[in-house]
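Technical note accompanying the year-one report. For the benefit of new consortium partners, we illustrate the data format agreed upon in the data management plan: each record pairs a sequence with a structure-token string. No post-processing was applied to the example shown here.
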Amino acid sequence: MQRSFEGKIWRFGDDIDTDIIIPTQYVALPTVEEMKQYTFEPLRPELAALIQPGDIIVAGKNFGCGSSREQAPEVLCALKIRCIIAKSFARIFFRNAINNGLLLIESPDLQDHCEEGDTVKVEINSKLVCNGKEYAIPAMPDNLFTIIEDGGLVRSMKKRNHVIE
């Protein structure tokens, strides 16, 4: 995984729950590829079609609250969201995202100072840069970063245990 990258921002507010990320009626579809077109449908039905690989979600507090459905981070991965930057994350969503290889970054300030369509530069374990302003971010523990780099928990454990896929 690159330690530095840039992406276009899609901006959200507080309390984006898993029912907004992927509504219940779509979790029964056979594959995540079929589900991904319905990502954020209750809030912004057009958005899934507009998201491009490498885009970044910036949100407020408590992103991923609600049910513990693993399909929420899975559809975000399927859309090739590069990372999510939020003021805070729901604990279960945080763990499910890491297990799926989705990078999450906590930033208490970025969401208040960016607009949708802006570009943010991410320097992992260092800072964010948006509109010429820098925002310090906490370092991610090595064990979690390894899981993300490996593409999720299952792939990381297979790699660690020398299992050939």
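Partners are asked to follow this layout when depositing records. The longest strand covers residues 4-11.
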